[in-house]
Each structure stands twice: as C-alpha cells, then as structure tokens.
C-alpha cells in the first residue's frame, strides 16, 4: 500500500514536520510505502484556469512541470495526506498550488450529487484522504476548516476521509497519539 | 469610516483582464468612479511571484480606502496566488499597522449554479479581513459564471440585470464607507433564472459545451481517458499514454508547451 503526503508547510514549520514524520513512521511500521512531498520545494506553476486538462489533453494538465507528477502520485496512492497551516480557515498557498492542479482527476462533465451540481469522477479508484491542519494559538477557524474539507470531499469523493485540527501550542509529545487517532479514522491502522 | 477617496480592484483570476472576476469587479469600480472615487487595479498572479510585484501590491493595499477582491472559486476556495496574497498582506499588516480604516469586500464567481459552493470561500475572506484589521464590507457570490463569458456587464441585458442592479446598490454603500447592504449582496448573488432551470441547463448544455471545446482541440475521443491509471498488471501506464509511442508522447508534450506559451 502506498501513501503520499502533501506537506503544505512554510519553511521552518517544526510542528507540521513532526506530524509528517510521525504519519510516515506509523505507516511504515504497518508496511506501507510512504512518500512525503514538501510542496514548497516543488516546481509547481499556478493553475491558469485554461481547462486544457479537460478539453485538450484530457486527464493531464497542459503545464509540463512537477504539478503533473504530484497529481499522478496522488491518484495512484491508497492514502493521500494533506498537511497545512490553517490559513484563515483554509489551506496554505503551498498546499493549494498542488490541489489547484489536481482537477484533471475529475471529468469536466456535470452531475447532480447530494442535491448540487458537481463534476463527475474520471477514475474508478480514488485514495483515502486524511487532512490535518495546524492552527495558531488564539485562532478559531476550526469550523471553517472542517467545512472546507467537507466540501472538497463532495468533489473528490474518496472511499474514506478524516480531517482534524492540531493546536500549535499543544505539547509536541501528544503528536504520536494524535496521528494514531487520525490514521485509525481513515482505517489504515487498527 | 470617513468618505472613501480611492478603491483598489484586486483581481484573483489568473486569466487577468480576460476573466469574469475582472468583468464583474470592473463594473462595480466604474460605478464607484461615477461617485467620485479614484480607482486602481492590481493582478494577484502577476504580483506575488516577484519582490517588486509584492511590494507594489502591498503599497496599493496600504493606500486604498476600499478594496474589492474579485476572484474565481478554485477547489472550494481561491486560486493559490490569491491565498499567497492574503498571507503576504496579513504578514505585512502585522509588521506595519494600518493607519486608517479600510473596507474589504469580495466578489467570488463560480461555474456552478448554486451560490452555496462559495459560502466557505466568503467565510475565509471574512476571517482574513478580521485578522488583518480590515472592516468587513460583505461578499457577493456569483454562480453560473460561464453564462457571463468574461464580457463587460450590461445593465440592460436580462442575464446580468440582477447582478448589475445588486452591484449598483453596493456601490452606493461602499462610496459612503459602509458595508454592502444585505439587499445588495442578495440581489447581486441571485441567478437570472430559477435555480432548477440553471441546474438542468448546466447538465444539458454545459456538458455539450465541454464536448464542443474538446472537438475544437481534436480531443473529443479522449474525454474519458485515465492517463494515470494502473493497468491490470498493476503497472503505471502514465509514462507512455495509451495508444501512443514514446516519440508521439514527446511530440504531444512539446505541443502542450506551445499551447501553454500561447495562453
């Protein structure tokens, strides 16, 4: 089984690095192959909104850079983990640059899903998704963050997903237990 | 807040002047200019990747009395460069405290007909406004953006009548330094046809439109391709897309690069 971690942290974010390492270590113990990707070090251009990935080269972004690789790795994984500082209730620009480029895993065609219009799925199999946001002390964006993840999941429709917010001022020693709880929620460890 | 004198239109769309974000934002700015405000435009995607661009952007935000952030919806929030701009503006305002009261409003547009797709995005901008010492001026959610076709808005056209009426109302509030009224927000966020009609048309004509666009690019037979799917043997089929040789693949990558250069 293969897990890919999209690390959307800024340089020097020790909390997110510690969470990334712990996710990797707990999964490796369970014989998973884990690939952490530090998105800030990747050459991923911004999505330009051209829809070329839908109507010119269906399924592949027309921008030939590492954004194609991250998308390929995401769809070929069994578990996709998103790590991000909670940014006004949303994702960091680093995580978002990879997510903006991931839309070719969906079809352009519209369908009604849960009473609203969404895009149809392109692939037969999608990875499970785990989203962990790290929130600054004093910020209160958990509700917005969880709602955003919920909406994303209506679009990506993974077989299982979980999302949680970790407070940055929490004792770093609590990270392993926190990570274990999240991995159990996505049913990759028991 | 005293009478605003200038307005900054911040365009979050990577498509710049050729975007719905620009068409809608520009209409509101024109209305504010008619009321005596001086306007400036800034394009987020062109600004945030260079030091000079970022400095110019921060200066423009610092000077403005009213800031209109007009942006498309990307994966339930904003394009990455727009988030980058919010991060940079927030950091800057922590270091250099604002010296005056400034109003921030947002206009978000999406291809989906339901405005609820944009609720979280508005919340994120509102959170940003509060955290960065802006006065929150409200959020407009424009659904079914594809019907606008990035063209300048026309008050007389049925398709944009409600949107333009709402924006005109909003301009009255903003020109007085006040947040948009609920009425303005609601009117500008209302579709020009009943929602069930828009949803049905999206499924019928929207899907047909994708096929027509694919046809123009000779891609109509490939719409359901799964280039990154593992084959039955569990091998990655990506390196050579189905039905293509290595040489053909290189040629199509080159073609992609040329396409990318053109846009």
In words, what does this structure look like?
The complex is a heterodimer of chains A (190) and B (263). Chain A has one domain (2-185): 3-Layer(aba) Sandwich (Rossmann fold), CATH 3.40.50.360. In chain A, the strands form two sheets. Chain A has a five-stranded parallel β-sheet, sandwiched between helices. In chain A, strands 4-5 form a two-stranded antiparallel ribbon. With 190 residues, chain A is of the alpha/beta class. Chain A contains six helices and seven strands. Chain A has helices at residues 14-29, 52-55, 66-76, 93-100, 142-156, 175-185, and strands at 2-7, 33-38, 79-85, 106-113, 116-121, 128-135, 161-167. The mean pLDDT of chain A is 97. The longest helix of chain A has 16 residues, at 14-29. The longest helix of chain B has 22 residues, at 195-216. In chain B, strand 4, helix 5 and strand 5 form a beta-alpha-beta unit. Chain B is of the alpha/beta class and 263 residues long. Mean pLDDT of chain B is 89; it is low at 237-249. Chain B contains nine helices and five strands. In chain B, strands 2-1-3-4-5 form a five-stranded parallel β-sheet, sandwiched between helices. Chain B has two domains: 6-188, 3-Layer(aba) Sandwich (Rossmann fold), CATH 3.40.50.360; 195-262, no CATH class. The interface between A and B is large, with 56 and 62 residues.
Please specify the SSE layout and strand pairing.
The complex is a heterodimer of chains A (190) and B (263).
Chain A: E1 2-7, H1 14-29, E2 33-38, H2 52-55, H3 66-76, E3 79-85, H4 93-100, E4 106-113, E5 116-121, E6 128-135, H5 142-156, E7 161-167, H6 175-185
Parallel strand pairs in A: 1-2, 1-3, 3-6, 6-7
Antiparallel strand pairs in A: 4-5
Helix pairs in contact in A: 1-6
Chain B: E1 6-11, H1 20-34, E2 38-43, H2 44-47, H3 51-63, E3 66-72, H4 80-95, E4 103-109, H5 119-131, E5 135-142, H6 161-175, H7 182-188, H8 195-216, H9 246-262
Parallel strand pairs in B: 1-2, 1-3, 3-4, 4-5
């Amino acid at each position: 089984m293969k897990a890919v971690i999209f690390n959307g942290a800024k340089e020097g974010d020790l909390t997110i690095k510690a969470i990334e390492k712990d996710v990797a270590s707990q999964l490796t113990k369970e014989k998973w192959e884990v690939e952490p990707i530090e998105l800030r070090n990747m050459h991923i251009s911004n999505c330009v909104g051209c829809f070329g990935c839908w109507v010119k080269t269906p399924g592949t972004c027309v921008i030939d850079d590492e954004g194609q690789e991250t998308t390929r790795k995401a769809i070929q994984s069994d578990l996709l983990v998103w790590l991000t500082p909670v940014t006004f209730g949303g994702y960091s620009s680093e995580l978002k640059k990879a997510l903006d480029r991931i839309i070719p895993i969906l079809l352009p065609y519209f369908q009604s899903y849960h009473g609203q219009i969404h895009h149809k799925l392109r692939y037969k199999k999608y990875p499970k998704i785990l989203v962990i946001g790290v929130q600054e002390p004093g910020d209160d964006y958990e509700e917005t963050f969880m709602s955003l993840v919920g909406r994303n999941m209506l679009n990506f429709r993974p077989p299982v997903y979980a999302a949680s917010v970790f407070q940055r001022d929490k004792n770093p020693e609590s990270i392993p237990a926190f990570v274990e709880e999240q991995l159990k929620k996505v049913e990759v460890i028991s | 807040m005293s009478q605003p004198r200038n307005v900054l239109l911040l365009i979050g769309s990577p498509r710049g002047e050729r975007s719905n974000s620009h068409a809608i934002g520009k209409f509101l700015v024109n209305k504010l200019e008619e009321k005596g405000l001086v306007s400036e435009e800034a394009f987020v995607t062109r600004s945030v990747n260079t030091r000079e661009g970022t400095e110019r952007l921060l200066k423009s935000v610092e000077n403005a009395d009213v800031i209109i952030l007009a942006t498309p919806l990307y994966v339930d929030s904003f394009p990455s460069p727009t988030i980058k701009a919010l991060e940079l503006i927030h950091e800057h305002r922590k270091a250099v405290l604002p010296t005056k009261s400034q109003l921030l409003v947002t206009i978000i547009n999406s291809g989906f007909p339901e405005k609820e797709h944009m609720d979280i995005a508005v919340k994120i901008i509102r959170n940003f406004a509060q955290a960065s010492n802006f006065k929150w001026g409200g959020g407009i959610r424009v659904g079914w953006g594809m019907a606008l076709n990035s063209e300048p808005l026309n008050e007389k056209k049925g398709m944009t009548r409600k949107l333009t009426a709402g924006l005109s109302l909003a301009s009255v509030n903003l020109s007085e330094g006040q947040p948009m009224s609920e009425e303005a927000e609601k009117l500008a966020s209302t579709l020009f046809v009943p929602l069930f009609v828009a949803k049905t048309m999206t499924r019928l004509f929207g899907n047909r439109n994708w096929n027509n666009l694919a046809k123009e690019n000779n891609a109509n037979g490939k719409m359901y391709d799964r280039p990154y799917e593992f084959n039955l043997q569990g091998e990655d089929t990506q390196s050579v897309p189905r039905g293509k040789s290595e040489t053909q693949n290189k040629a199509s990558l080159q073609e992609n690069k040329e396409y990318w250069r053109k846009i």
